[in-house]
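Quick illustration, no need to memorize.
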Amino acid sequence: MISEEAKKIANQCRHYAMCKIDYLGTGLCVAGKENHYVSYYPQGRMDIYKALANNTIPVTKGLVDIAHSCTLCGICDKQCHFITELRPMKVMHELKKYVDNYLEKGGAIVEVPSDPVVVELQKAIGEKWATNDPAITVTYSDDPCPLSPAQLPRAVVLPSSQSEVQKIVKIANKYNVPYVVRGNGMSVIGVVYTTGLVIDTNRMKSIEFDLDNWCVHVGAGVSAFDLQKEANKHGLRVNVSEPSALVCANIMCSGIFSLFNSAYGTGADTYVNAEFVDDKGEVFNLNQISAPNLSSYTKADVKLPGICTSASVKLHPMTDDEEGILIPFSTLNEALLFTRELSARRIGIAVGLIGGEYLSTFISPTKELALNAKKILTETLGIQFAVAVVGDKYDVESIRSMGKSVISNRLFRSLILGLPNIIDDEWLDILNNLKGNQKLYEILCKEEMIPLIEVALNSSPETLAKAVPNDLKEFYANLYSRPEMTDIAWLNMFRIVSARMGREKHFVPLIVYVPLDKPDVIQKMNEEFKNIADKYDIKNDFGTIVPLDLGKRAIFEYDYYIDHTDKKEIEKIQKAVMEAGAVIEKYSSTTKGVKWIRYTLNQGCCRKENLLYT
């Protein structure tokens, strides 16, 4: 009764939760939107099918409801293919078939045992919103993170308000049951497991704007994408991270990471105030004199200070002449120096140095195309690194006056829409014939070359759509007819392509605060991270550098990629991360400004000064 093809797809679910936000304008899974538990979303159904295939859960009333609530609308296939190339509709079909066959053959629906904790939680917040049904709990028990073992929670509970969170905490204390707070369903470092209660904040979706005070008050269940979308309606911007990440969870966990950190800061710079429920079920906010000092920082593993139920997030103005550009480089040293110079000169609203893996993966709708694009970009054109900048016309003019080659947004759009033809010789011959003593990317970036490139690559949404399966061609052609899909500024604001970095394999990021005035330290760390991964035959690559605090510091990300379903790869990544951690500890003990993200866990509210300068 189990389809091996469907099982393989289900095992590869990355838990990036992109099926829980309407980032492509396709709408959302109806059952997920109505029921809120991750189990009702495609991500949860994948976990359920995997569990059935492994005989780890029975068929319960909840499982039957989950299977029957799927309308087979196909939204998940479009969303998931865009990020990972997975086609979860196969799993959705097989899950329904499994349950229908089970019931037709007279299979018994297993009764879920009564639990006094669950009973009291249901009385407190509503019968529907607390459960110990295995079809629900199993979808909160595991993540692709290879560093922590799975743990099946005793129950899952979905509060809708701060007062309900208070009730949950007090009930947990009454029965001495541990709990964790979960955001949108994914953790790359394995910190949201428990054998007790999982508190899923997904129903707490309030968004209230205070435009006179340049802030917006958001509930704990609001995602980065949805908040940015609402802010954008007012012509404003928020500094947020991955689109499916919950804003409050991001602030609390480690602070917001984005290219806009260069202008908007990090840590306490990103919010005005936040409200919490402490471990006794009492409420506090950060403006109270008696509140815990969450603006402080200590290099230690710190306990969660409370459950963040809402935050007042800063709003930022936008101008009508903002544009995104890329400045290509052939060496890391040159790119680092230029990144620091932009930050020190206060040029750009968003600034970030990205590697060839990032760039090629982000712009490509398929793994195969990403591999071809990376080869052309890095080996043929010589673009090993690129500094991405979003700025107004004065920023762009300043960068051009610095004598750097610039990939304009028009050229960027032409490359994306003509990407399937990037391996053709015709357009490369045009560049090579004009090369002379210049680097090939310098020829590429000349404004007069863009019309030739558009013709040579036949740049169009239909051309790009040639790279995807036949049944998705029309969808991709229509999708990439929308100008924002090839707009560098929009893509950096909404981040919808960033999850593609885990498309080929799940990723484990090494994130370190580094001194940007010491490029030699960054390059040495980069080399050591690479050597460790190469030793264990783990795919790896430079990720990003985002400048902070006028170029004094930066956030450095290096990425390891692993198949999270392969036990041998899990063993290798565990060893590699331990060795990489030792490298970070070594540099942090000898170099001022080197700090490991490990110690910012639960300290994301801290002042960047306390983090970066102590």
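Residues 536 and 572 are 6 Å apart (CA to CA).
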